[in-house]
Amino acid sequence: MASRWRDIKQGNVSKESSSINEEIKDSFASAPIGHRIKAFIVDMFMIMMPIMYITTYLIMDGKDDFQGSDEARWITALIFGFIIVLFWIIKGQTPGYKAYSIKLIDDTTKEKVSLPKATLRYLIFLISATTIILAFLPFFRKDKKTIQDLLTKSTVIQAEN
Fold first, then answer.
1. Total structural domains in the chain?
2. pLDDT at 129 over 90
3. Which domain range does residue 86 map to?
4. Contacts (Cβ under 8 Å, ≥6 apart) of 147
5. 116 and 150: one domain?
6. Are 102 and 31 a contacting pair, CB within 8 Å?
7. Alpha-carbon span 156 to 93, nearest angstrom
8. pLDDT digits (tens, 9 = 90+) for 27-59
9. How far lies 27's CA from each of 5, 42, 48, 153, in Å?
10. If phi over 0 gives left and psi between -120 and 50 gives alpha, with beta otherwise, what is residue 104?
11. What is the pLDDT of residue 14?
12. Are residues 43 and 17 in the same domain?
């Protein structure tokens, strides 16, 4: 970075070619955090809430039984994760991602993520959601990547319309 700045300052590289390189590099920049949070909320209402309703009222005897059962809560989280992982590997987008025109891609292939990578990404998400520091990591990073983005080498990008 410093040598590129030095070359531009000394006139060895034109500013126009440098900005073109930056545009190409930024074409796979992370999607805005606000869009990612809103997409997560949409996914929670469209996918998780029906799962919880079915579990609470059709499988169990009501909210008291559901609240008293750690197993039921973990099972609903795993079913939600299974559905989310399927969306990631089949389409690269969940319903919330589609609503906000964002997409999950693999950093190396620039294509949809694989099943092991998507599964690992969801498991890391569960861990990061339980810790405050890891949940707020993208607010402190310039590239706005979450811990699951970094560890699975994936990126949530703005999709083309």
1. 2
2. no
3. 31-158
4. 124, 128, 134, 137
5. yes
6. yes
7. 9
8. 567 899 999 999 999 999 999 999 999 989 888
9. 21, 25, 32, 16
10. beta
11. 52
12. no
Whether residues 14 and 58 share a domain: the answer is no
Helix, strand, coil: what percent of the chain each, to 5? Answer: 65, 5, 25
Six-digit token string for 12: 């060895």
What is the Cα–Cα distance from 60 to 73, expressed in whole angstroms? 12
The two tokens of residue 89 are: 């590997």
Residue 117 in tokens:
């990578």
Same structural domain, 23 and 92: no
Co-location of 105 and 127 in the same domain? yes
- 17, 89: one domain: no
Q: Across the chain, where does the E strand assignment appear?
A: 102-106, 154-158
pLDDT at 67: 85
**pTM for the structure as a whole:** 0.77
